[in-house]
From TrEMBL:
An example Gene Ontology molecular-function term: thiamine pyrophosphate binding
Listed GO CC annotations: endoplasmic reticulum membrane; extracellular exosome
Annotated source species: Vombatus ursinus
Keyword set includes Zinc: no
Domain named Transketolase N-terminal: residues: 31-90
Keyword Transferase: yes
Record key words, sorted: Thiamine pyrophosphate, Transferase
GO-annotated biological processes: pentose-phosphate shunt, non-oxidative branch
Identification of the protein by name: Transketolase N-terminal domain-containing protein
């Protein structure tokens, strides 16, 4: 059953993520840009699934707002990892794993924890097709 968040819960989320109205508006603007861009790219290319792209826009924005990543040093072992395993030919990235991303993400997390004792997190975004067609 879905329920509405209380004002206290919403404030706690804003405080935890250090969100003010300006930053929140920036995240909304980025999600809107992703919506528009994904429709344009899939239309021009005549391939891909614009609805898959649009349904992931807000999630992508939240991931990249929350993830820790050093843009100056992409090989920093403490950088978080993001694996996209959602759908066919998403226009956000050049390559996405169809149904194989969760295995890759699991391998990254396992290796980080048990072999390199890394302090990174691994995020994996899967779609309904992967969940229903692939062993999760």
């Amino acid at each position: 059953m879905n329920r509405q968040l209380s004002d206290e819960e919403i404030k706690a989320i804003y405080d935890y993520h250090n969100l003010d109205q300006q930053k929140l508006q920036g995240l909304k603007d980025t999600a809107n840009w992703l919506h528009i861009n994904s429709i344009q790219v899939t239309t021009v290319a005549s391939l891909g699934h614009p609805t898959s792209c649009c349904s992931a826009a807000e999630i992508m924005v939240v991931f990249f707002h929350t993830m820790k990543y050093n843009h100056q040093d992409s090989r920093d072992p403490s950088n978080n990892r993001f694996v996209l395993s959602k759908g066919h030919r998403l226009s956000y990235v050049a390559i996405s794993f169809l149904g194989q991303g969760h295995g890759a993400a699991y391998g990254m997390a396992y290796t980080g924890k048990y072999f390199s004792q890394a302090s990174h997190c691994v995020y994996c975004l899967v779609g309904d097709g992967e969940v229903s067609e692939v062993s999760m």
